Amino acid sequence: MALAALGYPSAARCLGGTCCAILSRMLAHAWSGDAAFTACLRLFRSYPLAVRRHYAEHRYGSLVLADHSAGGARFYVLIMEWDDLFVLRPWDRRDSARVEIRRDEPVPADTRQVIESAVPVPRDGTLLGWLAGRQVQALLAVYGRLTEPWDDPAAVPGILVMPPVGSQPASWPALAANPLNDGRLWEYVARGQLADLTPLVSRRPGRVYWVPGPHDRAGRPGRPAGARIVVTERLSGEDFWLPAAVYADHVTFHDGSPPRTATQLLALPGVVDLSRGHAVEHLVGA
């Protein structure tokens, strides 16, 4: 890469230690750019459950990153636009401008830090199962549709941990209320403690339903508090089985509302059959 392209003087003007210092700075920038680009590739290859493919060109896509380096989570969207171009932007587009990441080109230090330390978020609509042996003991529903410029950016991604209604806390997953905060989500996926249920559910129409809570039915974006998942019949896959039950998150367990049967829940407005592929990606109302 030419020094002038990085804003440095030409080699003809470099003398002695000044030239060495300039070359060192150039190499540091080039290495940081290459490392950031390589880290982007690694994220897309290592976390397929986090990648949302573009409909027009399936080999490209995007994923959401959660950065906890400053304490609370900040979210970013990493987009693979071409084979040689990634773009990083904040979840809230008003926070800062998007940054392009190319091989062997310099990137800002804060961009490199996000790429190398932030944790991918499973894509919106992913349904995971917490396993005890081969039995699914709880569901994990991922929400967080990518926002449009006119959407409320306060509706950030998250994961609902949903044990069966009537189960005891001793059998619940050893997860935080929001597993994105404890940093171990992908460890559980890697060792088989968490299984992707989406392919199984999508092949069984009329078996698994999303029942939105009052918050969703009112059309307000955000955490889908009060939502439930109703599994009407046992589902069996090659490596696990999902019991028929009503599954609810921790907020629903403690909201004091009277329990409802599966039949009553399925009669509520807004119920979605999760076997419909387009519906799985919209667990939370827009």
Quick recap of the structure?
The protein contains eight helices and 16 strands. By secondary structure, it is of the alpha+beta class. The protein has two domains: 10-121, no CATH class; 127-280, no CATH class.
What topology does this entry show?
Elements: H1 16-46, E1 52-53, E2 61-67, E3 74-82, E4 85-90, E5 99-101, H2 109-117, E6 119-121, E7 127-132, E8 135-143, E9 158-162, H3 185-190, E10 194-196, H4 198-202, E11 208-211, H5 214-217, E12 228-231, E13 235-236, E14 241-242, E15 245-248, H6 250-253, H7 262-266, E16 272-273, H8 277-280
Antiparallel strand pairs: 1-2, 2-3, 2-6, 3-4, 4-5, 7-8, 7-10, 8-9, 11-12, 11-16, 12-15, 13-14
Helix pairs in contact: 1-2
